[in-house]
Design a protein that fits this description.
about 270 residues; alpha/beta; TIM Barrel; about 35% helix; about 20% strand
Length: about 270
């Protein structure tokens, strides 16, 4: 099983990445991570362990998570790919809502460039479709940012197959990030749809934790992450943590290959 993937056809990434969302204040991943220096040490340790794909978003903080990543890792080492997202606003831990207006997406992209300390965002994802804005309008706004050189590749999150098809008619889509794990497999058709088209699939909630909850119900991290990596060659796992020891365990467990028997036992009949 290969642990490498070409994101967007030209960015080599390891299929074991890091989801940075939890490096924010609590509850609700709102505000600055309370131990800022520890957060920077964790991010640097992730890179030392060989992780070259980090996922974040404007809504994490908001902005604080991107700021922490920029401060910890700039100047960014060669080969490091940072993905971020725009299209969701957060004004309080429990006040989260989509905003896919072109002017907002442009403003948040500019914010991300500044906070991450990069000249171009490797992967910019529409965080969530906004029911008050035509989907094509939001995707078109990110396509324009790509045309301007501010975004290298475009991704989507929390979308349906029909929305992916619509987006692909506007701009090449490099990734889809939907909720999927051993306990929640409703997105099976989307994974296969993306795999057939060379689109990376980033399952959020890979350990079946509820959004913003600290603990995951799956008993075996090894089983959960290894199963996801075996599920399809286009999957990139992005488990998150606030602990260096837990980070090291996640990386180690995800690199342990699952046997055919183990995979079959966990897979639906």
């Amino acid at each position: 099983m290969s642990l490498k993937l070409m994101l967007g056809g030209d960015l080599p990434v390891d299929r074991v990445g890091f989801g940075a969302m939890r490096l924010c204040g609590q509850p609700g991943n709102f505000g600055r991570f309370p131990d800022w220096e520890a957060g920077k040490r964790l991010l640097r340790r992730a890179v030392e362990l060989g992780i070259n794909f980090i996922d974040t978003a404007h809504a994490y903080g908001p902005g604080c998570n991107e700021e922490l990543i920029g401060e910890a890792l700039a100047p960014h080492p060669a080969g490091l790919v940072i993905a971020t997202k725009g299209g969701v606003e957060k004004t309080a831990p429990d006040k989260v809502f989509p905003d896919g207006r072109p002017e907002t997406l442009r403003r948040r992209c500019e914010d991300s460039l500044r906070l991450l300390r990069v000249e171009r965002i490797d992967l910019y994802q529409l965080h969530r479709p906004d029911p008050n804005v035509p989907f094509a309008t939001s995707v078109g706004a990110i396509a324009e940012l790509r045309h301007e050189g501010k975004v290298r590749h475009v991704g989507l999150s929390n979308v349906t197959i029909s929305q992916i098809e619509e987006a692909c008619r506007i701009v090449p889509i490099a990734s889809v990030q939907n909720r999927y794990n051993l306990l929640e497999r409703g997105d099976d058709p989307t994974i296969d749809f993306c795999a057939a088209r060379g689109i990376a699939y980033l399952p959020w909630g890979p350990l079946a934790a509820k959004p913003f909850a600290p603990d995951a119900p799956l008993a075996s991290t090894k089983g959960a992450l290894a199963w996801l990596l075996r599920r399809s060659p286009n999957v990139i796992v992005i488990p998150g943590t606030t602990s260096i020891s837990h980070l090291e365990e996640n990386v180690a467990s995800a690199r342990v290959e699952m046997s055919d028997a183990e995979f079959a036992a966990l897979s639906p009949g």
